[in-house]
Amino acid sequence: MKHAAFTSDFDLSRPVEPACLPTMHLPALDLDLVDATPERTIDHLLAPGRRRVFFMNAHCCNVRRRDAAYAQAVARADVLLPDGIGVELAAKMTGQKLTANLNGTDLVPALLKKAARFGKSVYLFGGTPGTADAAAANLSHAIPGLRIAGTSNGFADAADAEAVIADINDSGADIVLVALGVPMQELWLDRYAHRLNAPLTLAVGALFDFLAGTVVRAPEVVRRARLEWVWRLAQEPRRLAKRYLAGNVSFLAHAGFRVAARTSVADVQRRFLDITVSASALLLLSPLLALTALAIKADSHGPVFFRQTRVGRNGKPFTILKFRSMTTDAEARRAEILTSSDREGVCFKSRTDPRVTRVGRIIRRYSIDELPQIINVLRGEMAIVGPRPALPCEVEAYPKRALGRLAVKPGITGVWQVSGRATVGFDQMVEMDLSYASSRTLLLDLVLILRTFGAVASGRGAY
C-alpha cells in the first residue's frame, strides 16, 4: 500500500446536498439510471455530500439478475450511471433515449481532471499488483495537479479489508476508485464505503488496465460506432466470449421479455403496424426518394435533408428528418417573418413564406418533404399516426391543456393532417389531438392512414 499523507484544504463533510441528477426509469431493466450530460454528472459527483457510484452495463444487469447480494448493493447505491450500447438498446425498446453514455473509461478521467482544479485527491484500489501504481503514474502525467493519495492492489492488499480501509483513511483521499471487478467491487463498497472518510467512491471495473496501458482501448472510430465490446472481445476472446456473446444475447432477451410483459396488446399491434408500413413505404418509395434528392440538389445549394429538434412523447426531444424545402438560412430568417403567419395560435404557417424553394413548394404540396420521417418511425421516435411533432419553442408557449398532446408519439399523419392541416387553427388542432390520444385504436389508425392518401391528393392546407 502506498500513499502520500496530506491534509485536505476542503471541508467535504458538510451535509449540503445539491439538486438531484435527473434519472430515467428503464422498464426493460427495472432500473433508474442518470439521464444527464457528462458535465452535469461530474458537477453533481464533485459537489459536497457523500455518494457511492456504480456503472451499469449489460454484464452488470446480467449479474444483478442472478446475484441477490449484488442486486441489493445496486439498490443501495446513490448514483447509477448508464454504460454501453446494451443499456442504450434496452432504452430504445420502450422508445426511450438516454442523454449520454456515461461509461467509466471516459467519465472518470474527466471527473479527475476537474477534481484536480479543486485540489482534490484520489486513491486507487484494485487491479493486479503494479497496475494501480502504473495507472496512478499515467494519471499524474496526463492531469497536472492531480493529487494521488495512494494505491493498493486487488490481490494481496485486498485480502485485509481493515488494512485497506485504514490506509485509505490515513491517505486523506477525497475520491476512491475501486477496481475489483463485478460484483466484488460493488459488494466491497456496499459493505465498507460508510467507513471511508472519502465522500465520493466509485466502482470502476477495468479502468485501471486502460489507464495503465495494459489493455489498449478501441480506436475512436470503433467507439463512435458503439462497437468497443467487439474490440475487447477480439483482445481477450477466451476470457470475454461468455460475457459478450452469450451474455449480450441473454441481456437483450431478458430486456425484451420484460418489455413484452409490460406492453399491452394494442401497443404491440400499433408498433407492428408502424414497422410494417414504414419499412414497406421505404422500399416502395425509394425511386421517388432518390428523384426528390436529385431535384433538391439541382434546385438550390445545401444539403438534401433538413434536421431539426422536435418534441416527442412525454416531452423527449428528438431530431426529425425531412427533405429540405427551404433555403439554408431558413432558421435564421424565421424570427423576421413570424408576423406573416396565416394561422392563429402558437404554430407558424405562411402560404407566401419566402424561404421556400421552387422544388420545396412542389414537395410540400404533395407532402413529399415529410417522407424521410419514415426513418424516425423505424427508430421508434415517431409513429405513422399521431399528433404533429412540435418545435421546442412552440411547446414552451403551450397552454397547460395543450401539453396533453405529448402523451403519445408524434406521427407522420393524424387527425389534424387529414383535416386541413394549416387551415386548422391551433386550438382546434389541440382538441383533435387530445381526442385522438384518449380514444385511439388500431382501427382508427388504419382509417387515418387511408384518409391520408385523399388529403395528399387534395393538397388542402399543404404549404
UniProtKB/TrEMBL annotation:
Question: Is Transferase one of the keywords UniProt gives this record?
Answer: yes
Q: Bacterial sugar transferase domain: which residues?
A: 270-456
List the Pfam families: Bac_transf, Glyco_tran_WecG
In terms of superkingdom, the source organism counts as: Bacteria
Q: Which UniProt keywords apply?
A: Exopolysaccharide synthesis, Transferase
- A single BP term in Gene Ontology: polysaccharide biosynthetic process
InterPro entries, A to Z: Bact_transf (IPR003362), WecG_TagA_CpsF (IPR004629)
Q: State the Gene Ontology terms under molecular function.
A: phosphotransferase activity, for other substituted phosphate groups
Question: What family does the entry list?
Answer: Belongs to the bacterial sugar transferase family.
Full protein name? UDP-phosphate galactose phosphotransferase
Identify the species of origin: Sulfitobacter alexandrii
